[in-house]
Amino acid sequence: MPPDIPPQATPASAPASPPAEARQTALALLAGRPQATLTTLVAASADDAVPVGGWPYPSLVLVAMDGTGRPLLLLSELALHTRNLRQDGRAALLFEDTAGLENPLTGPRLSVMGRAAPLAGEEAEAARAVYLDRHPGAALYADFPDFRFWRMDIAQAHLVAGFGRIHWLSAADLTV
Amino acid sequence: MPPDIPPQATPASAPASPPAEARQTALALLAGRPQATLTTLVAASADDAVPVGGWPYPSLVLVAMDGTGRPLLLLSELALHTRNLRQDGRAALLFEDTAGLENPLTGPRLSVMGRAAPLAGEEAEAARAVYLDRHPGAALYADFPDFRFWRMDIAQAHLVAGFGRIHWLSAADLTV
Predict the structure, then answer these.
(1) Which of A69, B7, B73, B111 would bridge with B158, disulfide CB 3.0–4.6 Å?
(2) Which residues in chain A are closer than 8 Å to B141, comparing Cβ atoms?
(3) Does residue B86 have a pLDDT over 90?
(4) B54 close to A (CB below 8 A)
(5) A contact test, residue of B35, B47, B48, B60 with most A CBs within 10 A
(6) Residue A29 belongs to what H/E stretch?
(7) pLDDT, chain B, mean
(8) What is the mean predicted confidence (pLDDT) over B15-43?
């Protein structure tokens, strides 16, 4: 890490085991929040009018968690985030619940990095059941031909649970 | 629009000029929302315990707009997003106001891509005045030695304002 960055606030290395409280806070956000900010990498484009290839791109999505704790998404092939994921599956999701707070920075938030991939066959059917149970309104468009279910395999997560309470968590920490 | 139909489709190319309504919606989000999801690119690390270098990383920030419509941030050098920006200034901010909606996907949201850079001298002083007027509580930590004011120069923005109402906007479209 750069020498001008003191190590205490954001540990560069993942601790062997985060505190139980951190894991509980992270799991509560994953289970409780119906929506998240999906972040993808803008697909390179031959179109000079959109000169942000490689930039991070945040968008709003509804999320459901599968039986083992992996995020499920329902994405349209027409959407920019999906075009991005088709070129580079590296993605992240921000889960936060700060809407009711006077100072949003006092609320916990979880950044989950992982690889997203479309599902097919039985995996897509299983995802469909879980997702529509969580988001019944999505039944209106889940069968549109341009929609696919996607699943994120978590690589690492970063929890900011409050001032000085910052932790890296592994996929194993978030497996339910 | 039907409340449960997600506004997903996106044009691949930027129109020469977005509708006035799109610009108004975008400017209202920029002026009205005190917080946003900052997205940065995770700085490469020699530490194998955090194997997400290059991944997009979303985090929560408070934002103020400067007099010409550029986003201002107050970031700690101790934070992961700042370490990321020190290595690669390409960033994005998601502004959305969906907390009160039964279906968040019916609400407008704006993804602003640009380059973020730290401010110094008179520019930092001007940013301080604007930022603390918007976020008085930040006075508690604005003078901590690890905090700096940053400004994003907008490269391009992507508005999802509703079903079929998706537009690319330029920096000029968002200049006030």
Answers:
(1) B111
(2) none
(3) yes
(4) yes
(5) B60
(6) helix A20-32
(7) 89
(8) 92
